[in-house]
Amino acid sequence: MPATLSLSNLARDLRLGVRQLYRSPLLAVVAITTLALGIGANTAIFTVAKSVLFDRLSVDRPQDLRVLAWTSGHEQVVPSVWGDVSSTPTGGLISPAFSYTILQQMRAQSGVFQDLVTFKDIAVTATIENQASVVPAELLSGNAFTALGLVPPLGRTFNPAEDNSTTQVAVVSHALYQQLGAPANILGKVISVNGVPITIIGVAPQRFTGLTTGVEAQLFFPITLQPQIIPRPQGTTVSLLNNPESWWAQAVIRLRPNIPEAATQTALDLTFRQGAKATLPASKGLEGLRLALLPGSRGMDNLEGNFVRPSYVLLALSGLVLLLACVNLTNLLLARTATRQREFATRLALGASHAHILRFVLIESLLLAIIGGAAGFGLGYLGQDLIPHLLANQPNAPTISTHFDSQVFLFALALSFAAGILLGIVPAWQATRDTALSDSTRLSTATRSKLVLGRSLVVFQIGLSTVLLVGAGLFTRTLSNLNHIPLGFRADHLLLFRLKPPAARYTGINRALLYRRLEESLAAIPGVRSVSASNIAIIGDGHSGSTFHVTGMPISEHSQRTVQENSVGPDFFPTMGIPLLRGRNFTSLDTTASPLVAIVNEALARKFFPNGSALGSSFTGDSDEIPTPVQIVGIVADTRYADLRDATPPTFYLDYQQYSAGAGRMVIELRTASDPAAILPQVRAVVASVDRDLPLTNLRTMDQQVASTFSSERIFAQLTGAFGFLALILAAIGVYGIMAYNVARRTSEIGIRTALGAQRSQILSMILRESSSLAFFGVVLGIASALALAHFIQSMLYDLTPTDPVTLVTAAALLFLVALFAALGPALRATRIDPTTALRAE
């Protein structure tokens, strides 16, 4: 019976709550809209953050996977790495790239682990249905799909036998299969991949996009096809499979449940170090080489380093916005509770308990929150791809896939309940206090208590608004600072696009001849002033490192120095507008038959030739890529290289006509006389006339290229700016509400003051002083909170500190002005109070 009664009471309270919302439609619309915006923003950002922070690989038991990586001391003892080498917190080096031979040796230790899967993410030119395009792909060992517990919905996957053959087969991703229209004849279809005919044998499971987080592979190949699909010259061979000195392949292992992870690592570390000592040249840093097992539930995680802190910051900022909205709505509900004192007193007189009043008010706020949460869930669904879409415009940006699943629904539901309780608990508590009062003195005390509570909420509200405004100001100024960084070259009227000729069709000198022919053909287009090509586009196109050793200097001093290199065309520096400071430019006389020459930037000349002897000196680089000494014939001005935030690194430039091995993929740069977009049709026609299978990709202007490198900063500035604007509006509403309530409460007092001779200016000043005091305490609270949280965003700022006085003063002044403006209406209303009317009402 009690349970039935409780459910009956709950149903009755729900009906009454709906009826109360219907009677106050304006309040309901404002509250639901505010909550929908706050919960929707949080849901959309959580969906992205979940992908960055929590989502695992869609494989069997991802928690049992570990990524293999090697660590070393301060010196890089691995001679040639195709992949990332990062710094550790202790100053050492770490990389997931291994030689294929060493991974094969570790695979032989299968007694200490369950499976070892080798992989490498690549980009290939695929011609499918007569359409050529560059697509992300992945090389996989033959046991990959079986070891990961993946069953293809169509066809078959690889098997271990493919590790010992060069069968030209591929598995397509489910997304690519759908893009092709899910053809029934997909199995057995032959496609061209970098000029090599490949037969499709199966379709991968829907959620599997490879072992590299942030890269959605569309094609999967046996790793033994590397020499055919992506031949990379290494000495006398194009194969990386039998070259122990080229470290490029990556691997994950699946742990055995009955063997401790430490024992697995110890056994593999011994095998790894033995293999490294047997294949690497003797080096003093080789004894510091060790094997590490990293968490592998997310595969090779390309998102964690760049997006973890921004994800937490965005979640925190959106959470503050929702908290601010709840505080604002709490003040509205407090005012509404004050108008219902007689209703609550009557309920108590008729036998209702304080618990019933508390429950009734909470149910009303929860109804608002649930309806607002449902609307916010819909807004979050519509906005889930906004941030990934904005990031997609950034060169080499990782792919962030959002999944609107049950976790997102539970998050939105929990947020709705939390918001409902947060905005309803104070009005509910106040309602139970007010209904116990009966005489005017106690009612006056309750009114003063309500006013103090309302003022406290406004101060807290202004404090939150200050934090959001400071964040918006810091990120906006960071964006402005990045926009004004000197580039070192002319970014105007430059058109860029990337070409990657099929390696099987264009090898060695043929690639260089292809690019030279393209340069000459593109230069003939009316409106094109000059054309060049480069292996790496300046700004936002990654980097390419090489060892650097000055000829004649002791090997021990420079053998481990790493600089940046770029293979460029003879007209690269004039096309880019990079000043030549000393020496000469590349010319048509620099051919494969002439001695290798290079041009260096000022940073390299200063570092390696402090006495000014760079011109005429020679150097050597990576032995397998730069086999003979290179003479320095020119010095150019420094330019920003891979990222606007980083200082210009020491860089040398090679002429791709001499250095054909470096002309695999190239970026074509065209300087035009007018708008670069006007010549796009002619550019496409010229490239197609040279080779119809050449995909013209990543087409953009240099201005777009530069702007895209700080797209994440732009997103932060836009989102925090929107949050700050919303915070200002909510703060203004809060100040207006409390001041309007205060003026209404003090009508008789103001009337008496006016009757005794108080001037309108005095009344106006009295009300504005009250709002100023609220703003002052709120701003002080907000500035203190912002300074306490400053270290969380320090690394995300550029040429700016979190204690930037301009930002702090601007935020404080803006909030003061908003508070005064919001209080101006109630203050003017107070000056117009008629003393006779006020006293008669009293």
Please provide a written account of the structure.
With 842 residues, the protein is α+β, with helices and mostly antiparallel strands. The chain is built from 24 helices and 28 strands. The strands form five sheets. Strands 19, 20, 21, 22, 23, 24, 25 and 26 form an eight-stranded mixed β-sheet that branches. Helix 8 runs parallel beside helix 20.
Question: What is the helix tally?
Answer: 24
Give the overall shape, derived from the CA principal axes.
globular
Span between termini: 51 Å
Helix share, percent:
40-55%
**Mean pLDDT over the full residue set:** 82
Oligomer state of the chains in this structure: single chain
Structural class: alpha+beta
How much is the radius of gyration in Å? 34 Å
Strand content bin: 15-25%
Low-confidence stretches: 1-5, 435-446
Extended strand count: 28
- The biggest beta sheet, please? 8 strands, mixed
Entry keywords:
6-stranded mixed beta barrel, alpha+beta, 842 residues, disordered N terminus, globular
Short description:
This protein is of the alpha+beta class and 842 residues long. It has 24 helices and 28 strands. The strands form 5 sheets. Strands 19, 20, 21, 22, 23, 24, 25 and 26 form an 8-stranded mixed beta sheet that branches. Strands 5-6-12-8-10-9 form a 6-stranded mixed beta barrel.
How would you summarize the topology of this molecule?
Elements: H1 2-23, H2 25-53, E1 65-72, E2 80-81, E3 86-87, E4 93-95, H3 100-107, E5 113-128, E6 131-140, H4 144-147, E7 154-155, E8 169-172, H5 174-179, E9 190-193, E10 196-203, E11 212-213, E12 219-222, H6 226-229, E13 246-247, E14 250-255, H7 261-279, E15 290-295, E16 300-301, H8 304-338, H9 341-349, H10 354-382, H11 386-391, H12 406-434, H13 440-483, E17 494-499, H14 509-523, E18 528-534, E19 545-547, E20 549-550, H15 555-558, E21 562-568, H16 572-576, E22 580-583, E23 597-601, H17 602-608, E24 618-620, E25 630-636, E26 651-655, E27 666-672, H18 680-690, E28 697-701, H19 702-708, H20 711-745, H21 747-755, H22 760-788, H23 805-831, H24 835-841
Parallel strand pairs: 2-13, 6-12, 8-10, 11-16, 21-26, 23-25
Antiparallel strand pairs: 1-4, 1-14, 1-15, 3-4, 5-6, 5-9, 5-14, 7-10, 8-12, 9-10, 17-27, 17-28, 18-27, 19-21, 20-24, 22-25, 23-26, 24-25
Helix pairs in contact: 1-10, 2-8, 2-10, 2-12, 3-7, 8-12, 8-13, 8-20, 10-12, 13-20, 13-22, 13-23, 14-18, 20-23, 21-24, 22-23
